[in-house]
Amino acid sequence: MQTLQRRPFKAAHSAFAMLLLLVSTYMPSQAAPAAQSWVTSWAASPQPTWKGDFALPIRVPPQLWDQTLRQVLHLSLGGQQLRLRISNQYGTQPLNIGATSAAITKDGATIHSAYPVHFGGQRDVTIPAGASAISDPISVAVDNNADITLSMYLPRPTSPDTFHWDGLQTAYIGSGNQVDSLDMQVDSTSTTRMFVSALYVQRNDSAKVVVAFGDSITDGNASSIGRNHRWPDFLASRLAAHNVAVVNAGISGARLLDSGMGENALARFEQDVLAQPGVSSVILMMGINDIGWPGSALAPDKPPVSAKQIITAYQQLISLAHLHQIRIIGATLTPFEGALQGTPMQGYYTAQKEQVRQQVNDWIRSAGEFDGVVDFDALTRDPQQPALFLPRFDSGDHLHPGDVGYQAMAEAVDIQTLLYGPTED
Questions:
Q1: Nearest CA to 154 among 95, 111, 85?
Q2: Contact between 140 and 105 (Cβ < 8 Å)
Q3: CA atoms of 168 and 192, how far apart (whole Å)
Q4: Rounded Cα gap, residues 27 and 273, in angstroms
Q5: CA atoms lying within 13 Å on the CB side of residue 163
Q6: Are 393 and 402 in contact, with CB atoms under 8 Å apart?
Q7: Between vectors from CA 229 to CA 384 and to CA 358, what angle results, nearest 5°?
Q8: Which regions of 131-207 does DSSP assign to beta strands (E)?
Q9: What is the torsional sign of CA 186, 108, 243, 376?
Q10: Which of 73, 263, 323, 334 is most buried by its number of CB atoms within 10 A?
Q11: How far apart, in whole angstroms, are the C-alpha atoms of residue 90 and residue 259?
């Protein structure tokens, strides 16, 4: 490509050329319009369904057929346009969607005006097994922290093989094609996510994305359904003023080293973190299930996991993030003494497992391999009994925070360290 350069002025140039030069020199130049970009504003990490002999129920209907599925998505950043990602990642057959609409949520299953969603200009779409489809841009502007309702019509017998178990938001199911109906006739409900895996917004600024990558504590388990009280939700409210979106890539039951309720962390990091448009930082909080599951009803035959195994997995994730110029913040593992006592998951906590948690947390704090640390353990533990949750932060199961605990976790994240690095003294 040739570079254009201004040639030196010569006396032989005409007066007209002199005038043009003076005008170009002193006339203020117009600023170039801001570049538009797409960033992820909401996500739900896809999971495969599991067999009925697992300790936890699936909580999805066996099939949808000639029915409309209506789901509410709570965004972090708003934008001028939207795009949806629909996933058939774990399906064994093509996924046929007869029609889709997006709308600003009004209340429950009721919406304001529905906007038709197209895929390659068509209202219907068939997604091959193992694949995803991204919609055409949807011309609707949305504010930060807006609720968007997605409605999909499933005309054929469809098994929801790709889902997100812990949706913590009511989804509505009704007969026939109701995607454009303002007041949906509801036959049943679910608290899982089905098929939808991401929503992107178009921005006219240099927005950033933070991904919260974790397990049920990141997924928001034990927080209030429909209230958006997961700690990534509270963090999103803090960061919206900084033009930063927060994407929740938590999966309840997620582990670093083994698959089960979702794929292991090393297997899904590329899809759930690296592939998110606009990602600049990730907060990693995972490992408590690797410690707690072995010997419980969740993994009765699994041998104990060592701190070294967990740390090695952390080091791999750190390397992957740094290869893509992404900051990675390590979060310490929160207390879990007495976790799930009196439930079928008895044995989740032991004194030996607590020693592993302490070793892992010591490494997170002291090794210096993460780009920063957020000490959720120090925040949430009882000062008098450090292996226990502080009662006011405990949801009651001694493993997950409640709404107050999740809000405190979000407030403990240092924005400077998260986005740019610690301030030098």
A1: 95
A2: no
A3: 7
A4: 46
A5: 26
A6: yes
A7: 35
A8: 132-134, 147-154, 162-164, 171-175, 188-190, 193-194, 196-203
A9: negative
A10: 334
A11: 14
